[in-house]
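Board notes (copied after class):
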Amino acid sequence: MPTASSSRGFSLFELLLVVVLISILYGVFVHKLSTPKTQQEERLTPETLQSFLSTLEFKRQAEVICLEPCSSCDLYLDGKKASEEGFKLFQATPKVYFPDRFGQVRPIDFLPMRTDDHTLSNVCFRYVLHANRSGSHFALEDGKKFYLFDPYMYPVKVAQSFDAVTAFFDNTQKLPNDERDYVH
């Protein structure tokens, strides 16, 4: 005569239910870890900066300002800081170039800025995108690459040499050479 056992095993239904619950929890947990919390937490680069700012909602302008030593940058929408947390845009302090009044491409410095605690801080990088979708116009050297920012929302171009930077600012091809270039 078989004896009644006090220990009982799991039924197939109970095992399947546990496996399904664990799978659902695992799927939700992994999805939360792999999805960035905000768009700013995605890795921004100088090449993607302009397109990122164009996706934001603002009335006057969106601005990225990096204070020296350029280890962290802040996003400003219509003059107000969008987040208390900064983000990293550069590996080292970048150089920014623009032609002087004689057409020579030279490094530029940005004007200092008053921070929230009313101290004057040096700005190592500033990019502004206006509501009409025009933006800052300069060349940026970060590492061994040059990023060419056009003021009229053309995609940021990447160049490998300083010669490409000077060609980017060369307007002589846009000027008429003789009277045949004028429209009559």
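Comment from the instructor: The chain has three helices and eleven strands. The longest strand covers residues 123-130.
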